[in-house]
Amino acid sequence: MIVFREIILLLFALSALLIAVQCKKELSLSERVQQLSDAGTKKPVLRFNGDKFRQYVKGTPRNYSTIVMFTALAPSRQCGICRHAHDEFQLVANSWRYSQGYSNRLFFALVDFDEGPDVFQALRLNSAPVFMHFPAKGKPKKVDTLDIQRVGFAAENIARWVAERTDIQIRVFRPPNYSGLLALIVLLALVVGLLYLRKNNLDFLYNKTIWALGALAFTFAMTSGQMWNHIRGPPFLQKTQQGNIAYIHGSSQAQFIVETYIVALLNAAVVLGMILMTEAASKRDDVRKRRIYAIIGLGLVAFFFSLSLSIFRSKAHGYPYSFLLK
Amino acid sequence: MCVCVCVCVFDDRAWYPLGRIIGGTIYPGLMVTSAAIYHILNWLHISIDVRNVCVFLAPLFSSFTTIVTYHLAKELKSPGAGLVAAVMIAIVPGYISRSVAGSYDNEGIAIFCMLLTYYMWIKAVKTGTLFWSTMAALAYFYMVSSWGGYVFLINIIPLHVLTLMITGRFSHRVYVAYSSLYVIGTILSMQISFVGFQPVSTSEHMGAFGVFGLCQIHAFVDYVRSHLNKNQFDTLFRAVISTIAAAGVLTLAVLAALGKIAPWTGRFYSLLDPSYAKNNIPIIASVSEHQPTAWSSFYFDLQMLTFMFPVGLYFCFSNLTDENIFIILYGVLSIYFAGVMVRLMLVLAPVMCILSGIAVSSLLSTYMKQIDDVKVEKKKQRFEGNYFMRSEIATLFVCVMSVFLVMYTLHCTWVTSEAYSSPSIVLSARGHDGSRIIFDDFREAYYWLRHNTPEDAKVMSWWDYGYQITAMANRTILVDNNTWNNTHISRVGQAMASSEDKAYQIMRELDVDYVLVIFGGLTGYSSDDINKFLWMVRIGGSTDKGTHIKEHDYYTPAGEFRVDKEGSPTLLNCLMYKMCYYRFGQVYTEGGKPPGYDRVRNVEIGNKDFELDVLEEAYTTEHWIVRIYKVKDLPNRGA
């Protein structure tokens, strides 16, 4: 008898447990929304594993949309682009969280491959990152996946896509970049400090040589095309398909950064040669030194001029002249 | 003065329907000069047609430039330097490119005026007389009337005065020179209607005004200093300076905040902040002359001068005088601007020639003296320390320098003949058998327009061809090369980039009768409208009415600009595409390729057999380079 009662009690307990578990699986809509918004206020981007994904993103009924980023952030996966996309996604989620129109209609979530591989399989995703929009009603369509190839994953573009899919406008707020300002302040502090230390002896400002060197350095920088580099942002150099390294760009419409440094050095060498020659002729120094100056100067001038001419020849096709070097 | 009459002239055949006030939107110097020369020659009964005067004006003025460069370099260093500088500027490609016969543009006379002003200014600084200062002001007035680049002058001359003040070289000569130049020059410059009141209201001219004030203060301080003893002077000086400085800064801040002082305009601001134009004003960024300069462009236009210039700087620094400081400033500033914008290579060329002339002549004169030391035994005392092989080294150096100069000449001649000698309205190419094929399509199309369209027909095309249509076809146009109204150009861009129906609305609104496009797909001419199309999209989308035009709609999903089957549907159905490729799908262009093969983009076009709804083809030239379409009228009601 007693055993029978125990068994009945046990059965009741088990069934109660089962029912409880059952209920837990089917949380009501309001509870889900409540849990999501609580979690969302603390962390704007929610991290889901497979179960949570199915419960919150796929579970019905829903009156909210979810934007989910499928990514692979573990270092072993070696997905550098996932990291950048994660930063941009975080920016959008933060902007949404602190925006005036923040509501329970939209949530941002993340599923990492290592935490939810079943989700990746179910959705047949084989690349990362992927941004998908799961609407409140119905299944996601083709346009509910952000076309990263075409649009990229910059925060502004993600926000624009979200607005297109959900009609919720998010103004992306990028925290201001203080690095430029900081660099400027440091520079100013250095200059002021320098002037203060030398305040008794400001003569160095009147020293012609320093200004002359400054002007010459500026000229070399400009004639070698540094402004072009600053505006167009070319690569440092180029590795061709055969594995060789190309230092000089083949056409005269473009240049590499290393190429501009080479040209600046060549110009500087020629000018140095000419200056040495002038010094040799006019100074009152030791005879032998002046002779050495003159010979070195002449050699520098002739050699580096021909070198720059041959580099120019390789770029401007059809140029017929050369000097010493071909 | 005859300039005042120009205000009343209104051109209603350009920028339809806005029209253009000629007097108020251009610099009259070039036109007044040509008219003056024409009238003088005809009065002397040398009858030269005004067209020939205009064609040969630029080479004439570049000869004058050579003479002025000689005088300027002579003032700075010596007659030898002047001669070398004059020879260099006579052949430098950087200047020749903008002053070929037939290029009737402001730069042709502007460089002459600029160097003349500089010469007068240097004379004024050296002598300190009112005569030379007034001559400088008159030359400055001539410069203001001829080119918008006078802003460079009105900033570099005050900068020079400021540098002289800082280095303690300020003297009564500089005071007289600058004060008279500023007052007379500014009053004269305001006589040009295009300039108007800008010299007292825009930031570009405030520097000159500030330095003028500073000049007066400095001179006054010197005067007071000479009348007081040291202690009194020091106290007074310190008190007054602090008050004035505070008051001055406060007034400037208030004026700027109130908006009385207009900020830097777009074109000049983009020189200070090079990325400004690219991000904010696409029409400035689109002009190919406004692109930054790669090092090979420097070398191409200036060759040897690129490294003789720093040597010249070194010589100037070795013996600093008031004039040398000016030329150093000019050189360093213009090399910065030339690096930012290819067009400003023109401003750099003269100073490169002058400084290189100084360098070459100094080096040569030093070393020529050392060559024959056989005869001048006594004068050798100056160069004590005769060293072995001195004359041999000197001879070698002079030979090397001569070789450099010869190579410079050869280079300049080659560059000028290859790159700057071809006309841009008649093109030529070599056929397969080496024979020369001439493409005279532009003139053919313009003369067709002239003879086959009504007098008051309005033609829509991209702004590059505006002046040509006005001059050769004599028809009213919507936009031209002056590009003074960005919104109107943007409207044309919207029409070109939209679908036929939307474009038809815009064309009816603008009263367009004919549309003209340039197409290079049949011949391989690569500066056609399809290659410029993205700029039309960017400019079209940059104003309010064009927000529906987004650049990324015209790219493929992979982000490429393609006209074949993979191309974006928006691109394949826009007006420009349809106009360029109408009936092109049936044409065989190259052996072994399908019909409709575009020889510039090297693909077979995607949208081939289509009909035009709102346009009908009026004329296509022999090689399909220019295509003209007539805009159809509204359909009859009930038809």
From TrEMBL, chain A:
It is a multi-pass membrane protein. Residues 1-23 form the signal peptide. Keywords: Disulfide bond, Endoplasmic reticulum, Magnesium, Membrane, Signal, Transmembrane, Transmembrane helix, Transport. GO terms for biological process: magnesium ion transport; protein N-linked glycosylation via asparagine. Coiled coil: none annotated. Gene3D superfamilies: Glutaredoxin. It is found in: Endoplasmic reticulum membrane. Belongs to the OST3/OST6 family. Subunit of the oligosaccharyl transferase (OST) complex that catalyzes the initial transfer of a defined glycan (Glc(3)Man(9)GlcNAc(2) in eukaryotes) from the lipid carrier dolichol-pyrophosphate to an asparagine residue within an Asn-X-Ser/Thr consensus motif in nascent polypeptide chains, the first step in protein N-glycosylation. N-glycosylation occurs cotranslationally and the complex associates with the Sec61 complex at the channel-forming translocon complex that mediates protein translocation across the endoplasmic reticulum (ER). All subunits are required for a maximal enzyme activity. This is Tumor suppressor candidate 3. It comes from Petrolisthes manimaculis.
Automatic annotation (TrEMBL), chain B:
GO terms for cellular component: endoplasmic reticulum membrane. Keywords: Endoplasmic reticulum, Glycoprotein, Glycosyltransferase, Magnesium, Manganese, Membrane, Metal-binding, Transferase, Transmembrane, Transmembrane helix. Pathway: Protein modification; protein glycosylation. It is an enzyme of class 2 (transferase). It is found in: Endoplasmic reticulum membrane. Its cofactor is Mn(2+); Mg(2+). This is Dolichyl-diphosphooligosaccharide--protein glycosyltransferase subunit STT3A. It comes from Petrolisthes manimaculis. The lineage of its organism: Eukaryota, Metazoa, Ecdysozoa, Arthropoda, Crustacea.
